[in-house]
Design goal:
With 1090 residues, the chain is of the alpha+beta class. 18% of the residues lie in helices and 31% in strands.
């Protein structure tokens, strides 16, 4: 979330000294608050309840998993802590240039016989980053990062890395700067307490936000957000300290952090020099007509006092939606009200600058959806003449813009030239309702400063001087481009002009146009003088491929931001500006952490083609086609954005690289409803011709197949095309399979939207659906569960997360395969899995995340490989069984080699069986006599029960996992033939299923009840069994695993079912109790512990 946060590797010069630093100037002074009438200081009530700490980010998930598993998972990375501190020799792990790319034989061979390069799921950077993100302090002296220790997660504050050569450093860090720790998460809370973000407040203090997954969703339908202050100054006298939670008013209150255009929290110093940060508290309104209210308040980080941020009683903060801070005095300078009106503070009170059209049109909905950080969306900055710079769409009476892109950047034909182009840009912007940079003035219409005809400008893409004047903008159209404001022609390469502009040292004769010309000259210098070769995380790229976007100052050092046509997001290259020269500090560029990770794609050098695909009616669909470099793709995967209001940006992200390495082309479509291309496109509603978002997706696919001929000159009757997406994108995948099964061979729906009340018009896919809605109603037509009968034979992989919102889980599977239905009624081609312990977006547990992508890989290959033509072939990797935490599943038979973690876990269980054998348990002792050959092939033991206990890849049978409302865990297993020697063992956290040529270790979705027996039933219409396990429904999979860890990881054999138990199992369907069920002959009274 921090604008100066990068993926870097720290080059240590030696074990006995500190690394050199680049940025040595003190942090600029914060604004001090004015004397205010009657300061209202009071303590707010603390939340009652246990919060063990803060969270896991994607950069520490892999390390956190090692605490949750018996052994470190085999990721191939160094076990030495990266960027270690002073005191002894420490190794800095270096990224391999291949970044997990593995040359494959066999199934990895393409049709031409050459070896393809495939990105392994377990080594993919976008799933398990090998580079920790370092968060640079505002003055560039220190960095913060998260480290996992045996006691939990700490925030580690260190000296900033050296950018460039040793001799270019400007100073040395003190011992205090080098290493300070603040404890955030205790080990018992790993995977439960989730970190939302962290940012600097000053050079020694962090603000961290978190959620508690164990609390579930609050009354607003999202996770409760809390804030913590991590102060390194507390460590000087007392050693490592703990973060301090910011108190909230009630247990229903959620906390959010407004941030400025620089993505830093709004902060100031009080009269005594203590730091205060502006926070927003959301709670129930308890008022007619209002669901909740927002309260803005200053929080004092020294004494914990909270003060209402209202400037006067006539304009309470409950009416605020967005604010801008005065950089000098720390007072609120401008406010966007809930109704969309913009107010500017003046000596005569609040000036009404008129209505902000986008804010008024959107209402408070965009603020409702904000999580943790309230980024400025509409207001940019204030000017000395009591005006406000903002981003807004243009009204009917808007005049021609002062600045707009040149025709060559727009990728369309028939654009008028000369003075007529300004009118054309204005007409297009009004038609599409694109967001432009405007200046709001009291009593006057907004003045357009920069307008793009096709794409929206956002607040954080405006580059300001220190006095708040816009200097340049960056626009994410089909590609990202930077434009200097007021510049009609580039002047000389005067770098000193840039310094004066940024520092606010504008001389009297430097007009806006001259500033813009100086800014344009800087872009020209950055473009021409960039190093010939630049390294991005170990991957060398040509400097000519980099396009400058912006530049910012950090004391004596500057960071120049560039885009690369393959990368999603920006990279930063450190430099110095000396006179009129740009002097680069080395040639290593760093990726920003708030952008998509896309190194996998960078290493493959795919071809990225941005397109506007005409669909008639003067409309076009923005899309990106990503192709393998130098090879013809064998299949096409169509990706749809996550939600109405989201979008794909230019470049290829990590998932694109992962797919391209397997032989797929990727088509990323931004259908109507996508953000960034004007409010008219974002409205997402069907047009007069009754077309909808699905028509946009289909038109893009038809273009790719028929015009671009991605899969060759001739395409089979059913092309090798898959559609994939999350949330709205997952919903779109289901609709695509319903209406266009001739075009799409299969679909992957990740947390698809399944239930909305009411269904908005933006979810109507096409005219056929609209016609059905008029007869049957929206729910019967749009809800995926209502179309269960139509999806029975549809190749569809559905992935859900247990703690996601009710809109994105459970409904679909309960309709298509309701609890109690026979195996004969299961859908034939549906793959369904719900990951336990995961909330919105998933990925908190690396084992779950890897398993998800293994399943996507196998599913796509299984459905599309048989449709490829000619010499084109797809690749897949052998699945690794991670034994993920699954709360519900309906899965076909699969085969996977167990990971090291699973093998170690099974070996521990084998040791338990050996101990029980020695202890004289009759049934266990007889296992070696009656079933040694089965357990040997299943993974427990060799010729005897005491073998190595390490198995290879064996089939896992088709199965369903369900947690019943009464707490009974049901595992139904379907075999292709009667299993030989079927045996099931139950321990505290896992169910071990073994038979001849069959092996499956399943982590339990709930905690089994000690002393209760398992029951088994034979399926009446299939060769298989249902196993019932009594469980404590209140203790989930992750909580159960953590309890298991806290109790010393002692495994006991809680229950088991032997072949004789299955032989006499009843064929009646399972009910709520154990009547007539065959269970084991004995339940152990004593525990046998390893």
């Amino acid at each position: 979330k921090h604008p100066r946060s990068f993926f870097v590797e720290v080059p240590w010069r030696g074990a006995d000294c500190c690394p050199a630093i680049n940025f040595g100037e003190p942090m600029p002074a914060l604004p001090r608050s004015r004397a205010r009438p009657q300061r209202l200081r009071r303590r707010w009530h603390a939340v009652v309840g246990l919060l063990a700490g803060l969270a896991l980010t994607s950069s520490v998930r892999e390390l956190a998993w090692s605490l949750m598993a018996s052994q470190s998972r085999p990721s191939g990375r160094s076990q030495v802590e990266p960027w270690a501190g002073i005191g002894g020799p420490q190794a800095t792990p270096q990224l391999p240039r291949t970044l997990g790319r593995t040359a494959l034989g066999g199934e990895g061979k393409s049709g031409g016989g050459e070896t393809k390069t495939l990105i392994r799921t377990g080594q993919a950077e976008f799933l398990s980053p090998r580079e920790q993100s370092l968060i640079l302090s505002p003055n560039g002296v220190r960095t913060g990062r998260f480290v996992v220790e045996p006691h939990g997660v700490d925030l580690l504050i260190e000296v900033a890395p050296t950018f460039g050569d040793e001799g270019q450093s400007t100073g040395m860090a003190s011992m205090r700067d080098v290493r300070e720790r603040i404890n955030l998460v205790e080990s018992s809370a790993l995977g439960i307490i989730n970190l939302a973000g962290a940012t600097w407040l000053d050079d020694r203090m962090f603000l961290v936000t978190s959620t508690d997954a164990s609390m579930g969703l609050n009354s607003f339908g999202d996770e409760k957000t809390l804030a913590w202050i991590a102060d390194a100054r507390l460590t000087e006298d007392r050693g490592p300290s703990k973060a301090t939670q910011v108190p909230v008013t009630s247990d229903t209150c959620s906390l959010h952090v407004p941030v400025g255009i620089d993505s830093l929290p709004l902060r100031r110093l009080d009269d005594r020099g203590n730091l205060e940060v502006l926070l927003v508290f959301k709670d129930f309104a308890y008022e007619p007509g209002r669901k909740y209210k927002w309260t803005w308040a200053w929080y004092n980080t020294q004494d914990g006092a909270v003060e209402d941020a209202a400037v006067d009683t006539d304009f309470p903060t409950s009416e605020w939606r967005e604010g801008i801070l005065d950089p000098l005095y720390g007072a609120i300078d401008a406010v966007l009200a809930n109704n969309g009106t913009v107010f500017r503070r003046s000596p005569n009170g609040w000036l009404d600058l008129g209505e902000h059209q986008i804010a008024a049109r959107e209402g408070m909905g965009t603020m409702d959806a904000a999580r943790h950080w309230l980024q400025q969306q509409y207001l940019v900055s204030t000017a000395a003449d009591y005006t406000v710079y903002a981003v807004d769409s243009l009204g009917a009476f808007a005049k021609a813009p002062q600045n707009f892109p040149p025709a060559g950047d727009l990728l369309v034909e028939d654009i008028p030239s000369g003075s007529a182009m300004a009118d054309w840009v204005l007409e297009q912007s009004k038609k599409r309702k694109t967001a432009a940079l405007v200046q709001l003035q009291s009593g006057r219409p907004p003045r357009p400063l920069f307008v793009h005809p096709f794409a929206d400008l956002t607040v954080k893409q405006v580059f300001l001087s220190s006095s708040g004047e816009p200097l340049s903008v960056v626009v994410d159209d089909l590609t990202s481009r930077a434009y200097a404001l007021g510049a009609q022609a580039a002047g000389s390469d005067d770098a000193s002009a840039l310094k004066r502009m940024i520092m606010g040292e504008k001389s009297g004769d430097e007009s806006s146009s001259k500033q813009g010309a100086a800014m344009a000259s800087i872009f020209k210098a950055l473009r021409e003088k960039v190093p010939e070769t630049v390294t991005v995380s170990g991957v060398s790229v040509s400097g000519k491929m980099l396009e400058p976007l912006s530049i910012e100052q950090h004391s004596k050092r500057w960071l120049a931001y560039f885009r690369h046509p393959v990368l999603v997001g920006r990279v930063a290259l450190p430099c110095r500006i000396e006179g009129s020269e740009v002097v680069w500090i080395g040639a290593e560029a760093f990726r920003q952490t708030d952008e998509g990770q896309s190194l996998e794609a960078l290493t493959l050098s795919p071809v990225v083609e941005p397109r506007r695909i005409p669909i008639g009616g003067g409309r076009d669909v923005p899309a990106y086609l990503i192709l393998p470099s130098g090879a013809q793709p064998a299949g096409l995967v169509v990706r749809v954005p996550d939600g109405v209001g989201s979008r794909f940006k230019s470049g290829a992200d990590g998932m694109d690289g992962w797919l391209v390495s397997r032989g797929y082309a990727v088509l990323k479509v931004n259908p109507r409803g996508s953000a960034g291309f004007g409010q008219a496109w974002a409205a997402a509603e069907a047009t007069e011709d009754r077309t909808g978002f699905l028509d946009d997706i289909v038109a893009a696919v038809r273009w790719a197949l028929d015009t671009r001929k991605v899969l060759g000159e001739t395409v089979a009757d059913k092309p090798a095309v898959a559609v994939m997406g999350s949330y709205f994108g997952g919903y779109a995948a289901v609709q695509a399979m319903l209406y266009h099964s001739d075009l799409f061979a299969c679909g992957v729906a990740i947390a698809p939207t399944q239930a909305l009340t009411p269904w908005p018009a933006s979810y109507v896919p096409n005219a056929e659906a609209q016609a059905r809605i008029e007869e049957e109603g929206k729910n019967k037509v749009l809800a995926p569960g209502a179309r269960a009968a139509d999806l029975q034979n549809t190749p569809l992989l559905v992935i859900e997360y247990e703690k996601d919102s009710d809109q994105a889980r459970d409904v679909f599977i309960n309709r298509i395969a309701p609890l109690g239905c026979s195996a004969e009624e299961w859908p034939k081609k549906l793959h369904y899995v719900q990951y336990a312990g995961e909330s919105h977006g998933g990925g908190a547990i690396v084992g779950n995340l890897h398993d998800q992508y293994y399943r996507i890989d196998a599913f796509l290959y299984g459905q599309l490989s048989k449709l490829t033509g000619g010499d084109r072939q797809l690749s897949r990797e052998a699945r690794v069984d991670e034994a993920p935490f699954i709360s519900a599943a309906l899965l076909p038979s699969t085969m996977g080699k167990p990971s090291e973690t699973v093998r170690d876990f099974e070996q521990m269980f084998e040791q338990l069986l050996e101990t029980m054998d020695a202890a004289g348990f009759k049934d266990i002792a007889n296992l070696t006599e009656t079933g040694a050959k089965y357990y040997s092939s299943g993974g427990f033991g060799g010729d005897k029960m005491g073998g190595e206990g390490k198995r290879g890849a064996l089939p896992q049978p088709k199965h369903r996992v369900t947690v019943r409302p009464d707490g009974i865990l049901e595992v139904t297993i379907v075999f292709p033939e009667e299993p030989e020697g079927l045996t099931v063992f139950l321990s505290e956290v896992a169910l071990h299923i073994r038979a001849k040529r069959t092996a499956m270790t399943m982590m339990l979705p709930r905690k089994p009840i000690p002393g209760a027996a398992m029951w088994s039933f034979r399926l009446p219409d299939k060769i298989g069994y249902t196993i019932q396990i009594p469980a404590d429904i209140s203790i989930g999979a992750i909580e159960n695993w953590q309890l298991f860890n806290m109790e010393g990881r002692y495994q006991t054999l809680m229950s088991y079912l032997l072949p004789k138990d299955f032989a006499k199992a009843s064929q009646k369907p399972p009910d709520l109790g154990p009547a007539d069920a065959a269970s084991q002959d004995q339940v152990f009274e004593a525990e046998v512990v390893v």
